[in-house]
Amino acid sequence: MSSIFRGLWASLRFILSPLTWLFSITTAEEVRRAIEPPPKINSVQKVVDSSENKKYYNPRLDPKNYLAGPLSLNPATRLRQLLARPGIIVAPGICDGISARCAIEAGFECLYQSGAATTASRMGQPDLAIATLNDFVEAGEMVSSINPTIPVIADADTGFGGPANVARTVKQYIQAGIAGLHIEDQVQTKRCGHLMGKQVVSREEFLTRIRAAVIARDSIPGGSDFVIIGRTDSAQVLGMEEAITRLKLAADAGADVCFIEGVKTEELLRSTVAALAPKPVLVNVISGGLTPSFTSSEAERMGAKIIIFSLVSCVAMVHGVRAAMKSLKVTGTDFSTAKGMDPKSFFEVMGLDEVVSLDAKAGGTAFKLV
């Protein structure tokens, strides 16, 4: 009999033990947590949740790490050094190899590959979201290769899609040798920032683009100094207060530089710089556009850290080529517009001496006489 009772007692304990555990829970919330399985959180969610709740900070990329020492031969590192040190960065807009060569010849230490200029020069089309990621990457790789130590900041429009596309854009720009990019908050069917009728995405979608760019940059093996610039076009759509808020949030998400498109007055630029400090601010000057034609020294006095002249090459090219074509049509010769520049002089601007020298050092004899 004792063995039967022991068996019954063991069975009762097995049945009652879960009830005893359940009754020990004191609140309805505890009951809910006890009964429901824990939510599954993957690694991507953890990264996003963390970035939403905390300001991004990467000690390796702290500006103080770039204050001392000679300028790096790596263009992204050099751009960070220029950002950390005194003086405004003046980056003329380039549209092709010829304009890049002319900018370098003039002594500029940084170049800007404008999306509008790229679309115009490569496709003969307006800046209405017509050019693709491949167009931008190929153009950026070409101009970056002319002098690989000079930083090139390149337009990346909206990042060309969702977070995965933004990440792909960042990685391809880095592989192309580009030093930094800016990503904006316009809708995918975007337009030049100095045209009317712009539309912007929500704050959260804009921040998703910035986070994706930062995650992609930080995933590069060995670490990358690639510079991420957050750009908002919301000032003309939602007002300056919203534009400032968006850029503050972009900075918290990891943007290295802030860029408000279409700042209309000196007072607005000064207040923008003050509101976003200590983040550096980029100002875009296009003659006849929304922003006044500030000089680089004026922009520096207002506190801007980078000034870009997006269409300086394109507009000059239109005027120059128009005049040359008109002259050729009327006179039947290009003598006057050539202004004495013979073919060899032209090729010297394009790096002729460097190529001839390399060929000779390698033992080549094809270009002994050119």
Summary of the model, kept short:
This is 2,3-dimethylmalate lyase. The chain is of the alpha/beta class and 370 residues long.
Structure description:
The structure is a single chain. By secondary structure, this protein is an alpha/beta fold. The protein is 51% helix and 9% strand. The chain has helices at residues 2-23, 28-35, 43-53, 75-84, 97-106, 115-123, 133-146, 163-175, 203-218, 235-238, 240-253, 266-276, 296-301, 312-331, 335-338, 343-349, 352-361; strands at 89-94, 111-113, 152-155, 180-183, 227-232, 257-260, 281-284, 306-309. Strands 1-2-3-4-5-6-7-8 form an 8-stranded parallel β-barrel, surrounded by 9 helices. Helix 5 links the parallel strand 1 (89-94) and strand 2 (111-113). The longest helix has 22 residues, at 2-23.
Defining key terms:
370 residues, alpha/beta, 8-stranded parallel beta barrel, 51% helix, globular
